[in-house]
Description:
By secondary structure, chain A is of the alpha+beta class.
Amino acid sequence: MALRNYQEYIDSLKKMRPNIYKFDELIEDVTTHPATRNTVEGHSKSYRLYNDPNEKEILTTTSHINGEPISRYLSLIRSPEDMYANSRMKRRLFQLTGTCTGGRCVGWTALNAMFITTYDMDEKLGTDYHPRLVNWLKDAQARDITIAGALTDPKGDRTKMPSMQDDPDMSLRIVERRPDGIVVRGAKVMICGVAAANELFILPGSGYKETDKDYAVSFVIPRDIQNLTIVETRRPSDTRETEEGFDIPNKEGGITQAYLFFEDVFIPKERVFMAGEYQFALGVVMNFIGPYRSAIGGCVAGQGDVKIGAAVLTARTNGLTSKVFNDKITQMNINNETTYAVGIAAAAMGKKHPSGAWLCDQLLANVNKVHVATLPYETSRLAQDIAGGIAETGCMPSYKDFKSAKYGHLVQKYLKAKHSAESRARAARLVEWSTIGAGVPGCMHGGGSPDGARLVIRSLSNLEDKVRFAKKLAGITEDIPEPEVPKK
Amino acid sequence: MALRNYQEYIDSLKKMRPNIYKFDELIEDVTTHPATRNTVEGHSKSYRLYNDPNEKEILTTTSHINGEPISRYLSLIRSPEDMYANSRMKRRLFQLTGTCTGGRCVGWTALNAMFITTYDMDEKLGTDYHPRLVNWLKDAQARDITIAGALTDPKGDRTKMPSMQDDPDMSLRIVERRPDGIVVRGAKVMICGVAAANELFILPGSGYKETDKDYAVSFVIPRDIQNLTIVETRRPSDTRETEEGFDIPNKEGGITQAYLFFEDVFIPKERVFMAGEYQFALGVVMNFIGPYRSAIGGCVAGQGDVKIGAAVLTARTNGLTSKVFNDKITQMNINNETTYAVGIAAAAMGKKHPSGAWLCDQLLANVNKVHVATLPYETSRLAQDIAGGIAETGCMPSYKDFKSAKYGHLVQKYLKAKHSAESRARAARLVEWSTIGAGVPGCMHGGGSPDGARLVIRSLSNLEDKVRFAKKLAGITEDIPEPEVPKK
Amino acid sequence: MALRNYQEYIDSLKKMRPNIYKFDELIEDVTTHPATRNTVEGHSKSYRLYNDPNEKEILTTTSHINGEPISRYLSLIRSPEDMYANSRMKRRLFQLTGTCTGGRCVGWTALNAMFITTYDMDEKLGTDYHPRLVNWLKDAQARDITIAGALTDPKGDRTKMPSMQDDPDMSLRIVERRPDGIVVRGAKVMICGVAAANELFILPGSGYKETDKDYAVSFVIPRDIQNLTIVETRRPSDTRETEEGFDIPNKEGGITQAYLFFEDVFIPKERVFMAGEYQFALGVVMNFIGPYRSAIGGCVAGQGDVKIGAAVLTARTNGLTSKVFNDKITQMNINNETTYAVGIAAAAMGKKHPSGAWLCDQLLANVNKVHVATLPYETSRLAQDIAGGIAETGCMPSYKDFKSAKYGHLVQKYLKAKHSAESRARAARLVEWSTIGAGVPGCMHGGGSPDGARLVIRSLSNLEDKVRFAKKLAGITEDIPEPEVPKK
Amino acid sequence: MALRNYQEYIDSLKKMRPNIYKFDELIEDVTTHPATRNTVEGHSKSYRLYNDPNEKEILTTTSHINGEPISRYLSLIRSPEDMYANSRMKRRLFQLTGTCTGGRCVGWTALNAMFITTYDMDEKLGTDYHPRLVNWLKDAQARDITIAGALTDPKGDRTKMPSMQDDPDMSLRIVERRPDGIVVRGAKVMICGVAAANELFILPGSGYKETDKDYAVSFVIPRDIQNLTIVETRRPSDTRETEEGFDIPNKEGGITQAYLFFEDVFIPKERVFMAGEYQFALGVVMNFIGPYRSAIGGCVAGQGDVKIGAAVLTARTNGLTSKVFNDKITQMNINNETTYAVGIAAAAMGKKHPSGAWLCDQLLANVNKVHVATLPYETSRLAQDIAGGIAETGCMPSYKDFKSAKYGHLVQKYLKAKHSAESRARAARLVEWSTIGAGVPGCMHGGGSPDGARLVIRSLSNLEDKVRFAKKLAGITEDIPEPEVPKK
């Protein structure tokens, strides 16, 4: 085997044990249930597009383990070019699905992060995590599976360390260590694309001290493993997905974000990649955010491309030329290209890790995170500005009303403008969906908060260097140290 | 009679003919149906608060007609102080209801606009519209009714005048003139608060030429008049209103935005305030946007106050002090106070109209419109930034899942932080609701688009004056006229 | 006497003892010396314009003491309308002089601040400062003098209180108290318009404790008092003022900012308005910043008006129509009107003080201060954008080169565009002067820093109120207090 | 020969014919005259630093012609890595000189642009421009000369083509073609670093039609060629350069911007690289702006680094810790890294030209140009915000006053804060110099205007692609073309 086709992917999902819930109901088949079918469809795109030679080039690469053709989502990122392809692939998939296929990208980034950290741990501690990971990866490549990644713990009271919480389960932890594996308890929350995944790659949080060592844990599991319960969260306007019609116009993709509850789940040893090495947990997070916060610039750019297209489309159905909005469209393009470009630059300015992995520049990656938490909001505002009142909050009667036997003809008569009522409604709904509806991904806090990124920027931007050369330029010879902060 | 109490208001709505639909169903009782009860509740606040001496002062005033105590929403705006009270009242009602009670404010602004224009028409044309309006207003004050206002026409192809459209009904028009009144056909769209209104005040659009004179029409009607069909539009996450629980946490208020279809509705003469005087239609719009775009600064400020409160509340349930977010909160406050203040200034810089009405400064009112289309987006972004991932897109399991017999205990266990799971979820849902949910009003395009406001700013900001004094300062004596635009 | 004419004003300056220096030279006559004549010319505008009926209305008012016609700059601000006139007057004077005439406005604001505080002190402490001030003011009105105001102390090490500095003179202080007056030592720095003033009104700093009581001092003095030495500071491109030609094109106005050195200056008792009442010093500052930070919105708007005019003028000399820059000009107008409007609103939302003075709303006044520290920078950038490369940094040969016998013809040949080389150069120089030259006033830190304003905003914006109504809207009943900040 | 040392460079400048003027005076020796010595010092840095192994790596490379070690400024840009080095070198030189060394970078970019265009012309037209250029370049590398580049024509009336101007000399043109060369007349304006250059590389403007073919001209000349007269322009506060002391604190670098007047200058054939091929002129400009608008992100980042250092240094002399300003400093860092990163990305996303040159991505390069015209203004504002009133407009007495025998002790006494008066003054002057003084380079319009960049962005951002995939996502099948713009 190697590259699966669409049907093989769908079949693999159908075969799994149902353990995902939404609205207090078990989802028997994620590929057909309205709450999950759109995200499965979105994630399936990469399998479908293997047949398209243009897209295949970007979606596949060769295994660094055995040289076989593999999905890029299962590859080791070894060079700037691999990262450029990462950004391009994400931008492209946003353009084709309209939204996030996070179930692939987070898992991929997670396995790359642990590839590096397992190498470092083995070097320093003499453990054998790295070969375990490589073995699993080789197999995963052969099976061409989809892997979601899980990072965020519930955390509880933010002012207390995991081990100091009233309830010690507020971050995922090892509750038992056995010769053949570990047992874990806790939760991971806001996890993207789980419903479309075959396996889940779990990362530890960070900021751990020795007392928190049971929280330093990483492993990979089948999504339908015993004692794992998954609950999908609400998203804006998500019940529309259960309705007929075009109030959610896009069927090409969708997002899910899940809460994973681990009620003493057993993980066999060969799938465990960290189990107590708390001093390496921060490294995992840094190895994760480097490529993640770089390539998310591609995601946001693709999302912005959709907003531009949807806004102009709506304006045209109103009879308005895009020329009227040139300045706004240009600003939207600048926003898109900025997040895309800063991510590319973070890759270009990176460096090689001894394991063979490529490390993105952290300063630029984190600058990008701040842009990703800011610029898309302006792009959304401009899309709503261009597309007008019916798009701003989707201010139109529902599809049911559109089709009403009693007054649907009136709805349609008055929604018609330069183009048909349906085209106009669909275009405006796409603006709504992507700016204030179910298509809005959680980019601001996804993969960490912008304030966290600002902290990284502060620590990496070498303030004292800048003060030093300013001092030289100013011709100052006196010593001017940082003053002590006065006590209050 | 005069000031009604809450029950009288509710009873008046219950007594009306059901003619409002949503999801292809007739709403039998707007005061109890989930699609409308929240907006009725929000609109009822002003009736409820007559009993509160602090609030009564801002909510009531005296009639300029007969000196009786009346709702401010039925008063003539005669002074800057009346406008300040307008801004304050709107800000206060946003704080108390969390969102827009547009069914009162648009109707009020509409009657003030037509108060002025009917005066002007009578002066110029010798018509008797003004006494008709005053008579109706006196009666409306005595009945203490709620009045929604309707301005926006469907418009059809934006590049064509109303009379040049393929379908002449794309703007509301007179199709028959009778000795005792007129018959109108067409629609008004995106009309706020109709479900909570007793009557509807209809304004004409603008930009009409002589051939469009049948479109220059203004009148007031009972909401349940014959041949009027009303369809409520969707809003983000609106079906949550039909659900049990706190996924929409706020029951104190809500918005509706309706499409009104006029299928040859007869309006008796004494309720008609314009019928063909196309040359006065632009004046109506200007008289409307003056106070509307001023006082909307108060709305947006109140909405921003809620976002600040909701975001800080969420942070505190996480265990985080608001001090961490001082800079962001200060920026949110600056945004709020800016829209509030520019509206106040537009009132302060206004002038008296011969009819006794107060005209706000158009330049400042329109500057405010641009701020209203921009600053709340930043305020929403900052609220989501402070409140974290669960608020950004409301990334939590639904209320049904929260209460699930099977795994609700897990949802609750892991949603708990510094405070209870429920408090945390409610706070985060309020951020979601007010920034990306059903509480987001259409402030950007409501009452006209920001690009329209920019055109007004351009026409009123006296560019040539500025060039003239720059020229004097620069000591230039040569004539420097505006160059001709080169032909392409 | 009462309203002086231009010549009387000039003569009064000529008669004073020369005690102002620049570039290590004594300025014998401030009305003719190149370093000060432009600011004198600017300040003289208000005397000149008494003859213009349109301008007189805004520049004069009546004395609240004796009903005589007086300069508005010597009046008590008693109503919102007085504040509107303040904003309008400042905007107008910027339009006519191109820059700040701070020697009038700071002095005026200072006397109003002390009018209030002396009233409060007399009420609380039984002192007789208020009648002293009123007596002096009555006389000042009769003499129609120009008064500069002085607030900023050198301060020394920012982390130490005045009385804890290594050098106790780092803030102005009383070094001797005599029966007939006080002796002061220290400095006031960055004081605007001193060269154009007849008298100087000195205010205390703030944040004083009992040990700092000698620093709580306020008084008014002739500018040429014994033992006072004044040194004018540099400003960008200030030596151009000493050159012939149009490299500074504007001769209608100019700024100066002085350092005042008090070497044991004796102040007679009747001119002393505070001498040790440290607990009232903060009140002075608040009474000062209320009207100051409100009306500075008018200054900044007038400055922005000049930038718009100058930029468009330059574009036209290049052959470009302003239509190309519509969006940029509209944004500049929005910036101008915003600072103007927020100041007007701070006045409108103010309240009466028992002394008869009008107190502006502090929250809005301080919001405006932040805008004043931000928006003009964008307006300057847009002016440079419109006006092009020759304006951005004034990238043209000097006037001397323009007139060179050797190659001046070449300079002129190639500077000519749609209009003459001289008109084009003058227009571009005006953009340079007002955005990166000697015309840029220190609005960001003048009258206090934006960070200080942010502190006031934070303290006045009632966070807990906002949390309280958000909590009610969210239906939360649990107590959610501000968490304790964790100790590090 | 190959890499020259500092003295050789200085000597080469001393040997040249004096033909540069400022203030109507001939500059006899550019290396010592106050108007030019700072820029010579700045440009000499690259020669000086050959001795520093760390810096040498970035400043030198090998010739693609003969493999010899050469200055990077004389190299062909052949790869993304060459462009990264370009950005890094420019950032580094800004850090070391405080400002622009444009006399190297523009010349370098110009020769690279013509390297490509001469190749294209020879391919298409069979001309021999490319070998001419390579011959000259080989020689220039051997001589290790400094080359300024000249692009901007005076242009005259912006609405007319060069050949349609009243005065045909408003753009540089060929007035005579001889067998051994051409004679040119006209001017190039706002040319950076001419005084520090050995030779000048002249590029054509763009937008030419056949009638403008005499304007399509490119060549390289010694700076002191016969019939070339050079006049240096003013910059903000430039006369301070002629003064003693630290009012311009930085002696490590400086800028000049010159007007070049060509009065029938003869250019020998072997130094002419375009002479009439108008259809290739646009290509030159595009080949120029690609690397220029990419690498200018490095310049602006380095400039921003200086502003950060200078602002923090000033705050520390005031006794304030940088921690107070963390948010502002982080924003400044984000601005710096953004322009740096977008330039890096433009390089990374580029492609190879058949000539061997590397072509940067135009879309990203032009996005960067817009950032370069915007972000530094915010960075300057924040620097002034941090550094306080004495930095905002440099509000301190002059150096002469600082040293005054009469009152210099007072100036120094009161300028002292946490650190000495001199250190504080120097630090604040550096903020002034770099934000509103002689150190501000003309980055907004240098190398073309941001509006020109916006046009490129619009043309390259594939609007119809975006509309197409939005249409697919929205499920719209109807054809929705761009409407015709209605005629007025």
